[in-house]
Design goal:
Blueprint: E1 7-12, E2 27-28, E3 31-32, H1 35-44, E4 50-55, H2 58-65, E5 70-73, H3 85-93, E6 103-107, H4 116-127, E7 132-139, E8 144-146, E9 152-154, E10 168-179, H5 180-186, E11 195-198, H6 210-224
Parallel strand pairs: 1-4, 1-6, 4-5, 7-11
Antiparallel strand pairs: 2-3, 6-10, 7-10, 8-9
Length: 232
């Protein structure tokens, strides 16, 4: 019965930004940054699914309307620096009758690079019955931690070559999926034990600084060529 479940894609984009002014609507490849996540949701969704765009900005909502999501205006209290993404997700979902096995999919608007093959793999994992899924990048860090002496101590036993060391996986912040019953009961975007999808290279860019933005501008023209059907 997995094919009877619905997916609720949520893209939250608040106005303003301290690091980069109006980051979520900054031009990237000829469209506002958050539109990339709407395009990716459109690529993944089926007719029975829902795409929800949540913002505190009438301007952002008007821009998003051209891509036909369900528009959700949220209050200032859900849009400050202390508002959790989970609280925004709960607000976006509150007026829908959602089945416990329906999938809640969060697409963060500051992650504009998602290849079609990656989106296909993400869908395959969800459609296999995944209770929880998160995108990650593989790293091979040599971790140091502050000690009581004020110096720092290494937290690894051997300095192994990258090729034979066990990778550590770090969330990219790009995509999350969780079943509605778990989200409803716990208000968390993922379970403690989840499936992962390892992403690569530019897909791991999360635009949080001007360096991230400038790097994105270098890659965007080649990247956007695969999205011609969306008339960018």
């Amino acid at each position: 019965m997995l094919d009877m479940t619905k997916k609720y894609f949520i893209i939250p984009a608040r106005k303003g930004s301290k690091g980069i002014k109006d980051k979520n609507i900054i031009d990237l490849g000829g469209i506002p940054l958050f539109i990339w996540s709407l395009i990716h949701a459109q690529y993944m969704h089926k007719s029975e699914d829902r795409i929800l765009f949540s913002s505190d900005s009438d301007e952002y909502l008007e821009i998003a309307s051209k891509y036909s999501p369900i528009l959700i205006k949220r209050s200032e209290s859900l849009s400050d620096d202390y508002s959790s993404t989970e609280s925004v997700m709960s607000h976006a979902l509150k007026n829908f009758e959602i089945s416990k096995n329906d999938d809640i999919v969060l697409l963060q608007p500051t992650s504009p690079f998602r290849y079609k093959k990656t989106l296909d793999k993400f869908l395959d994992i969800i459609n296999s019955g995944s209770e929880s899924t998160v995108t990650v990048k593989a790293t091979h860090p040599f971790v140091w931690k502050e000690s009581k002496s004020g110096l720092y101590e290494k937290r690894f036993s051997e300095r192994l070559p990258r090729q034979i060391s066990t990778p550590t996986y770090i969330e990219t912040g790009s995509m999350y999926q969780v079943k509605f019953n778990y989200f409803y009961e716990n208000k968390l975007r993922n379970k403690d034990h989840s499936n992962i999808l390892i992403t690569q290279d530019i897909e791991n860019i999360d635009i949080d600084s001007n360096i991230d933005l400038e790097l994105s501008k270098i890659y965007i023209e080649d990247y956007k060529a695969q999205w011609d059907e969306f008339n960018i």
